[in-house]
Recover the amino acids of this structure.
């Protein structure tokens, strides 16, 4: 061991010319004590690294429950569920022999499959046993819905084949208030057993395709906009349809299990101060809401607000000589609702509020119309509808009667339908409802899946946010509901699929908006270090210095 | 004596307003001594029970009704108050104190619930939603600020299932009532401050008043036939300082009059050309509504009845000889009631209406009815550990008064009930007849103390008890911790003599400011740094001892001088070598 190695000299003696003199004097250190010192330093470091660091890590760690991140991302990318919409269409042919009916069914199915370009949405024909005796077509019409409907509620549409002798055939007619298509035909239009096509089959197939065209377009639009994975295999929508569908979907409210409808009467003066809203709602709105009960629930309330002035941001109405009316500019309609002063606060409880505003203008500014088109009502996307009711008589009545409210109620009902996203066609109302059911189920699945994806991205990107167990549970429940919903869709049970999708959506929202996940984000690591620095600094400096010195003394020795 | 009668009549008149039609409003003006004016606004709207259940609202505001339905609230009382009612000079309180609250915000409600937990969760829903509606911090009414009074409050409405209802009461004495609370209050009115007497209500004037209280009371009222309505009463009572309100808005700083215009007390010894003791003028000051409130009334609210008792929406209570001018372009009707001491006006629709009273030398005045009790409450003692509360209740009347005294104290103010003493000035009997006491639980519940007491005629009752001040946790202090903490006012309800109607007679003391021991808020960091330094010092010493090589002085050959001498010698040697080196270089 060279003598210089024992250099334990204090800095005071480290001037170059004195070093040899002084070191020569210090006795060489024994190997034993040298190794003892090294052991001491090493054991300090061992405690710091093996005990201190893990403790620090553990005590300052944030609890993050295990999330199935890969599965969540897969859901968001659409890899887990490819929504398909197999629609069951029942054919009732009470007058046809079994064999002929089967043959007709097959030929029609072939024709349909040839027509269909959208693989996810396909129509499957099936034959039902009709309990009715043949040849009483009149009775069939009167008892529709009761007699011919089979118990299976997942049948989207029933086709009734009715043989007739007169009139143009084959012709078909859609029942406006039942999911039933009546097809009239003559016997010679039935496909002969050898042939694979017939005018009747082709006509039914075309009719069905027409009926479900809008639904297909809607679903295609939905698939193409919500996830990139589906877009590739979609049939292309024409740009015109695309913009129209886009317009409709931006108008419609987000799906919710409960909607609150608020009907408000606003007037800038003190009249009218009352309206017969109870009976008007009972008559014009209740039947509509009842038919929607399978999809959503509704609460209805109403209010009367007097002295409701325009907001100062819009231009006052101007008198138009040509129209003989006071007019509002179209660009001012968006500011018509004076949100600051009109009490249109959302209703309490879950679910969005849909507002319907009936505005009765001042006597001196009546009639009040929209300048560009002379209309008096408009729809505020995702918010509600407005109608200006210009009183018929010169004197504004104190009370608006039920009859005076009728036009307003009709247009509010129309506005409600488009706010709920009900498609414009086909003519049969139950069919439109069931279309809405399928579209809603699909959109809920997509939105819950994308929420899952967003949550997965969030937990990956923000390392410092905690993930409590409740979030993990909600995520598991969401995935279970999504899977069930997807399976039910495949089976064609749309009501069940909608319910599961609804649950999935609410669980997903619960997981994403978990409150305790946010708090820790604002408690950064720098803060923790700053608090412990007064301890860590003075402790670390001697430890590091001692380690460095020992290393210095060891390394040159090895080299030599 | 004539004026005394007039006041009794007036109360009967207010009561009859609250009955018939669906919407009624009334403003009562009453000049008070020392150029003060009491303006009492009252609005009442009714909604039938069936419309309420079906959520078809006409006069009842939809926002409030939905809150009530959502929280299962059957009867609601909400108060926003500011200032102190000077009972010594202003006499009895308006509405017998039944429409006023303690300083800050006070809320009590009867909730429909199966059990206490459900009632409390509904109460939290109610406070949270009302907080949003009125822009007030009502959401801070939590379990520590909530009590369930036993004797102090009685329901005003008709409830078929009173046994299922739970009464909860919460106060926020720290809340400062301001314009943001008035705006939602006005939005609840059908005429919205655009017409009728509510057009006078303006935040600048209302919150500049010496005393003001806003109240909302919702209660069900059932006829004998079983038909029920839900009645909402909104009240704004304020005492305006006429001189203060009249100052112009562009020059609001009060300046003394030139000495020539001041009426001086010449009997004072120091009275001279430049010194003056001002005399209180005996003349009643002049004022008009537009001067006091900044604007006239914008005509009648068309929803009120056009004839009958309720059509008289503005009333002024003055001696018959006082001149009152009504300035308006529209038709109005003046009627004199109660031996001419009450002048009521039916307002014109669509035309401004203003009342002006010229300055007048009065020979007679109206006698104010003295209150049944005077009450004052103070904190005594010094130091940061203990204090005591003293409440002085004086009965000026010639009959005994039976009353209930309610205290709701924050948990960090811990009373010692064994020190509770109640003494009556001229009797040795214990005035306390009943006691209800629910002790506080730290951070979970406040103290709830209710006492039923009997105070004999013309005597003074003194109630004292000691309390201990708790030390709070670091995070429990509010941002302005050194200001102190507010303790809610005590509520006194008179049992006998009570009132004829179901509203009751109430008196509230002022709120108290309780100074608590306040720490230095940088303390935790100081503690961390100090502890860390001590720990680092210890660690450094031990570590050095362990890793340093220690060589005895005698073990080093040649190092003859050890210790301090050696060190100094070494230093000197080094310095010399350095200096020598420098010299060589130069």
């Amino acid at each position: 061991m060279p003598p210089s190695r024992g250099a334990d000299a204090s800095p005071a003696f480290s001037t170059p010319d004195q070093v040899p003199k002084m070191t020569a004097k210090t006795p060489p250190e024994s190997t034993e004590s040298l190794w003892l010192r090294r052991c001491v330093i090493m054991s300090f470091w061992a405690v710091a690294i093996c005990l201190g660091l893990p403790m620090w890590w553990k005590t300052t760690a944030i609890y993050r429950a295990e999330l199935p991140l890969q599965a969540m991302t897969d859901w968001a990318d659409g890899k887990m569920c490819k929504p398909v919409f197999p629609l069951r269409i029942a054919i009732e042919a009470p007058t046809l022999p079994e064999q002929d009916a089967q043959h007709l069914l097959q030929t029609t199915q072939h024709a349909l499959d040839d027509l269909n370009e959208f693989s996810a949405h396909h129509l499957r024909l099936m034959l039902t046993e009709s309990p009715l005796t043949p040849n009483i077509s009149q009775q069939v019409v009167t008892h529709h819905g009761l007699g011919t409907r089979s118990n299976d509620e997942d049948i989207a549409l029933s086709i009734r084949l009715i043989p007739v002798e007169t009139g143009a055939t084959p012709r078909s007619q859609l029942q406006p208030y039942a999911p039933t298509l009546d097809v009239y035909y003559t016997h010679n239009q039935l496909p002969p057993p050898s042939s694979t096509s017939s005018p009747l089959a082709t006509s039914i197939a075309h009719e069905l395709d027409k009926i479900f065209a809008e639904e297909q377009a809607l679903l295609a639009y939905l698939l193409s906009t919500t996830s990139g994975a589906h877009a590739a295999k979609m049939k292309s929508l024409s740009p015109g349809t695309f913009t129209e569908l886009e317009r409709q979907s931006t108008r419609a409210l987000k799906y919710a299990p409960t909607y609150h409808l608020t009907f408000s009467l606003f007037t800038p003066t003190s009249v009218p101060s009352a309206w017969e809203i109870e009976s008007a709602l009972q008559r014009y709105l209740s039947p509509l809401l009842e038919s929607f009960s399978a999809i959503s629930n509704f609460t209805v309330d109403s209010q009367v607000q007097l002295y409701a002035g325009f907001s100062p941001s819009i231009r006052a109405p101007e008198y138009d000589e040509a129209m003989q009316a006071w007019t509002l500019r179209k660009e001012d309609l968006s500011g018509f609702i004076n949100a600051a002063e009109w009490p249109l606060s959302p209703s309490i409880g879950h679910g969005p509020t849909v507002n319907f505003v009936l505005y009765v203008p001042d006597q001196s500014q009546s009639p009040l119309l929209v300048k560009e088109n002379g209309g008096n009502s408009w729809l505020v996307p995702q918010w509600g509808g407005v109608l200006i009711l210009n009183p018929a008589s010169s004197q504004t009545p104190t009370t608006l009667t039920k009859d005076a409210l009728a036009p307003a109620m009709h247009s509010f009902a129309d506005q409600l339908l488009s706010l709920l996203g009900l498609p414009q066609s086909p003519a049969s109302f139950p069919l439109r409802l069931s279309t809405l059911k399928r579209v809603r189920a699909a959109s809920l699945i997509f939105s819950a899946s994308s929420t899952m994806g967003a949550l997965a991205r969030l937990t990956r990107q923000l390392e410092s946010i905690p993930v409590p167990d409740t979030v993990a549970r909600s995520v598991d429940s969401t995935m279970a509901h999504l899977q069930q919903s997807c399976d039910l869709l495949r089976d064609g049970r749309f009501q069940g699929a909608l319910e599961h999708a609804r649950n999935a959506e609410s669980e997903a929202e619960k997981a994403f908006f978990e409150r305790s996940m946010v708090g820790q984000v604002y408690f950064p690591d720098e803060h923790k270090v700053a608090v412990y620095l007064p301890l860590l600094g003075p402790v670390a400096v001697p430890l590091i210095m001692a380690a460095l010195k020992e290393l210095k003394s060891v390394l040159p020795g090895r080299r030599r | 004596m004539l004026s005394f009668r007039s006041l009794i009549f007036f109360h009967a008149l207010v009561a009859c307003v609250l009955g018939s039609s669906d919407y009624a409003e009334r403003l009562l003006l009453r000049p008070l001594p020392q150029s003060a004016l009491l303006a009492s606004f009252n609005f009442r709207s009714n909604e039938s029970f069936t419309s309420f259940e079906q959520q078809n609202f006409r006069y009842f505001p939809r926002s409030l009704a939905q809150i009530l339905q959502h929280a299962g609230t059957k009867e609601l009382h909400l108060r926003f108050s500011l200032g102190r009612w000077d009972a010594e000079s202003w006499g009895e309180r308006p509405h017998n104190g039944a429409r006023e609250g303690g300083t800050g915000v006070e809320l009590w409600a009867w909730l429909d619930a199966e059990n206490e937990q459900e009632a409390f969760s509904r109460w939290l829903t109610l406070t949270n939603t009302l907080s949003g509606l009125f822009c007030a911090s009502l959401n801070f009414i939590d379990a520590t600020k909530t009590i369930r009074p036993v004797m102090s409050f009685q329901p005003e409405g008709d409830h078929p299932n009173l046994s299922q209802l739970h009464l909860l009461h919460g106060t926020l004495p720290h809340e400062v009532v301001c314009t943001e609370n008035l705006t939602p209050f006005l939005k609840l009115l059908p005429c919205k401050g655009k017409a009728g007497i509510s057009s006078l209500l303006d935040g600048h004037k209302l919150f500049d008043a010496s005393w003001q209280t806003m109240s909302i009371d919702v209660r069900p009222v059932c006829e004998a036939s079983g038909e029920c309505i839900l009645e909402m009463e909104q009240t704004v009572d304020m005492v305006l300082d006429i001189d203060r309100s009249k100052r112009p808005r562009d020059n609001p700083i009060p300046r003394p009059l030139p000495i020539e215009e001041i009426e001086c007390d010449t009997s004072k010894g120091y009275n001279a050309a430049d010194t003056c003791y001002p005399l209180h003028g005996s003349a009643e000051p002049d004022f008009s509504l537009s001067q006091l409130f900044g604007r006239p009334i914008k005509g009648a609210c068309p929803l009120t009845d056009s004839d009958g008792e309720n059509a008289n929406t503005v009333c002024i209570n003055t001696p018959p000889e006082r001149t009152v001018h009504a300035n308006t372009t529209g038709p109005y009707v003046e009627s004199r009631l109660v031996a001419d001491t009450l002048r009521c006006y039916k307002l014109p629709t669509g035309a401004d209406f203003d009342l002006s009273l010229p300055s007048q030398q009065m020979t007679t005045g109206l006698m104010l009815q003295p209150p049944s009790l005077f009450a004052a409450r103070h904190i005594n003692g010094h130091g940061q550990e203990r204090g005591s509360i003293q409440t002085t209740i004086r009965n000026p009347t010639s009959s005994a008064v039976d009353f209930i005294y309610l205290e709701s104290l924050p948990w960090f103010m811990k009373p010692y009930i064994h020190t509770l003493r109640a003494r009556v000035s001229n009797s040795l009997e214990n005035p306390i007849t009943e006691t209800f006491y629910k002790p506080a639980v730290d951070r979970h519940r406040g103290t709830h103390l209710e006492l039923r007491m009997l105070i004999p005629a013309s005597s003074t009752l003194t109630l004292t008890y000691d309390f201990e001040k708790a030390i709070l946790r670091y995070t429990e202090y509010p941002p302005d911790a050194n200001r102190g903490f507010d303790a809610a006012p005590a509520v006194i309800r008179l049992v006998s003599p009570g009132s004829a109607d179901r509203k009751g007679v109430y008196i509230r003391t002022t709120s108290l400011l309780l100074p608590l021991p306040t720490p230095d808020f940088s303390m935790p960091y100081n503690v961390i740094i100090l502890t860390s330094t001590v720990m680092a010092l210890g660690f450094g010493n031990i570590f050095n001892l362990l890793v340093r090589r220690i060589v005895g002085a005698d073990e080093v050959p040649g190092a003859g001088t050890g210790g301090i001498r050696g060190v100094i010698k070494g230093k000197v040697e080094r310095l010399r070598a350095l200096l020598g080196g420098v010299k060589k270089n130069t």
Q: What stands out?
A: The longest strand of chain A covers residues 155-163. DSSP finds 16 helices and 15 strands in chain A. Chain A touches chain B through 47 residues (CB under 8 Å). The longest helix of chain A spans residues 525-559.
